[in-house]
Amino acid sequence: MLYMVMGRSAPKRVHKFPKFIHDTRNLKVGLMGGSFNPPHEGHFTIAKLALKLFGLDEIWWLISPQNPLKSSFETLPISKRYQLCIEKAKHPKFRVLKLESNFKTKTSYSLLRKMLPRFPKIKFIWIMGSDNLFNFHKWYKASELSNLLPFAIFNRKNFSFRSLNSKGAHILGSRIRNNRLRALVDEKPPKWGYLHNINLNISSTKIRKSN
């Protein structure tokens, strides 16, 4: 609105970092990794809720070139998914990134091991749906990954009971109480929180099959 009043166009949202990343800002950032094949309203809803519920400064959408647990047969090219995410993530505090491609990593653990030292003053929290919690024990070095940052789990329809009693939930360590969720990003991992009052029933798979 300010730019409209001044008769100038608003600055374009920057979704890229310099080649050699070293960000020394003091921020609280939510990391939302995934294939985004394609991105949908559920991703946008979770990102918006995470901003508010955890008092975050930014949400970074981290696009994976290829999820090692999924087939590459139906995966859109990352360039296409990147553009679709930019179109979907229209929010001043959202940033769409291809850090896995930049760092040439293939797993979330490997990515975080490379990127976290480059952001020494940023507090990160990993954001994902309860369907991913159910399968978390299959992730590469899941136990080591759980020790790198706290996890925020958003409920997905039909996954609540299975996820909360899964191997993944055990790996993530100590679950904090609901009245402490806002401070989750400040917790020393392994720590995680579960948001029950969400019942998202949107999936990229269903969207692909409907097209």
Give a brief rundown of this model.
By secondary structure, the protein is of the alpha/beta class.
Task: Walk me through the structure.
- By secondary structure, this protein is α/β, with parallel strands linked by helices.
- 32% of the residues lie in helices and 20% in strands.
- Strands 3-2-1-4-5-7-6 form a seven-stranded parallel sheet.
- Strand 1, helix 2 (41-53) and strand 2 (58-63) form a beta-alpha-beta unit.
- Residues 1-11 and 202-211 have low confidence and may be disordered.
Note the run of SSEs as H and E: HEHEHEHHEHHEHHEEH
Evaluate the radius of gyration: 17 Å
Helix content: 25-40%
Mind telling me the CATH superfamily name? Answer: HUPs
CATH architecture: 3-Layer(aba) Sandwich
**Average pLDDT, all residues:** 84
Work out the number of β strands.
7
Q: Globular, elongated, flat, extended or rod-shaped: what is the shape?
A: globular
Tell me the number of helical segments per DSSP (H or I, 4 or more residues long).
Answer: 10
Termini gap: 36 Å
The number of distinct structural domains comes to 1
**Based on helices, strands and strand pairing, what is the structural class?**
alpha/beta
- Portion in strands: 15-25%
Strand order of the largest sheet: 3-2-1-4-5-7-6
CATH topology: Rossmann fold
The top level CATH class name: Alpha Beta
Biggest sheet character: 7 strands, parallel
